[in-house]
Amino acid sequence: MESKHLLDWLRDAHAMEIEAEQMLGARIQRLERYPILQKRLKEHLAETKGQIKKLEHCMGLLGTDEATIKDVGAPPAVSSQILSATMEDEDVVKCSIAAYAFEHFEIASYKAIVKAADHAKQAEISQICRESLEEEVAMAKWLKEHFDETTRVFLERSQDDVPNSTE
Fold it and tell me: pTM value?
């Protein structure tokens, strides 16, 4: 069965996860005031590193050699824009919004890969990517469940940081 699209989408997902790894690593260091979020992002960073290895294995199953995998180009523009637009920002709410949007981008990517793997009769790739899909869904769910609290804490801290203008 044809696996051209499958391989292309695996490469895109690999590049996407490499970009996510870099952005998460940079962001985690600046979240010391938000230890719960920082802890969960550290866990997700470990998942992301695992997903990179899984994607490399999947591409190998389709005959892509390791040198080619390492030379994969830039991630899709949308994922890069979502992440870079706000992950460098100090506003944790903007970063949470970007992370939530990016998780859904990853979810859609993995759903397409699973369908392509099923279509190409690549059961191992399908199963591996289903596992990654579940991790992304769990992360999106966690971000959604903690968004209100993160926003509340941010607003309270922002208010505390504003000098009293009535003096």
Answer: 0.85
